[in-house]
Amino acid sequence: MVVLSVPAEVTVILLDIEGTTTPIAFVKDILFPYIKENVKEYLQTHWEEEECQQDISLLRKQAEEDSHLDGAVPIPAAPENGADDLQLMIQAVVDNVCWQMSLDRKTTALKQLQGHMWRAAFTAGHVKAEFFEDVVPAVRKWREAGMKVYIYSSGSVEAQKLLFGYSTEGDILELVDGHFDTKIGHKVESESYRKIANSIGCSTNNILFLTDVTLEASAAEEADVHVAVVVRPGNAGLTDDEKTYYSLITSFSELYLPSST
Ligand SMILES: CSCCC(=O)C(=O)COP(=O)(O)O
Ligand SMILES: [Mg+2]
């Protein structure tokens, strides 16, 4: 087995979710279709609720920022003229969400609505999150060795907690010391990793970030975070240069913690 030695200064392991802890197929084939199939009914049912109105406001703001993009779908201002306007507005939000999802956008607005929609599916037991089989045993081992384990995903913190709270492995939320999402910044921006270190109360070089996306690894590395790229079935392929440049692991069990011997 290939072994990647974790530098002695590392005290925090920061995990991406999709493509790292969890198969991309679970997100693409189960979580995302749930949104596309249910978003219209969800909006019709929850429209009057404050949480839903906050989600719409955020989506509308994002739509304004996106107005220069090819194919962007605008969301009109709040309806004034009754039921017909409301139905047009709901359809605009549905079209905007589907457009964003067709591009796999990671906007905070989209991710916030998705997190709220998944709540019902997870808590009712209709969906259970999948984790690669090496994830839970490795995380337990790291924690026993004194490591802190944090999550940094484009999925909202609320969605992350649903995944860890309602998984095929049971409720494994207690294995996570904390969560970060795009509210702290985007994963391809190095400043986000500095803010995460600051929020945890450590230096960036105390963190090892595991992700499937080399753009994220590169941003983290620029902030002096240690990185390893996770190669999982179903992940996007890496170029030869990326394979040479980055430390690669195919399972969390390949990480060797000097302190855990
Ligand atoms: C954690 S919620 C479901 C996945 C999701 O919506 C997403 O965008 C995952 O992105 P990641 O940063 O974990 O690759
Ligand atoms: Mg990922």
TrEMBL record:
GO BP annotations, alphabetical order: L-methionine salvage from methylthioadenosine
Stretch forming the signal peptide: none
Cofactor note: Binds 1 Mg(2+) ion per subunit.
Residues noted as binding substrate in the record, renumbered to the chain: 153-154, 187
Pathway involvement of the protein, from the record: Amino-acid biosynthesis; L-methionine biosynthesis via salvage pathway; L-methionine from S-methyl-5-thio-alpha-D-ribose 1-phosphate: step 3/6; Amino-acid biosynthesis; L-methionine biosynthesis via salvage pathway; L-methionine from S-methyl-5-thio-alpha-D-ribose 1-phosphate: step 4/6
Subcellular location: Cytoplasm; Nucleus
Coiled-coil portions: none
Record-linked InterPro entries: Enolase-ppase_E1, ENOPH1_eukaryotes, HAD-like_sf, HAD-SF_hydro_IA, HAD_sf
Cofactor(s) needed: Mg(2+)
PANTHER family: ENOLASE-PHOSPHATASE E1
HAMAP family given in the database record: Salvage_MtnC (MF_01681), Salvage_MtnC_euk (MF_03117)
Family statement: Belongs to the HAD-like hydrolase superfamily. MasA/MtnC family.
Protein name from the UniProt record: Enolase-phosphatase E1
UniProt organism field: Myotis myotis (Greater mouse-eared bat)
Gene: ENOPH1
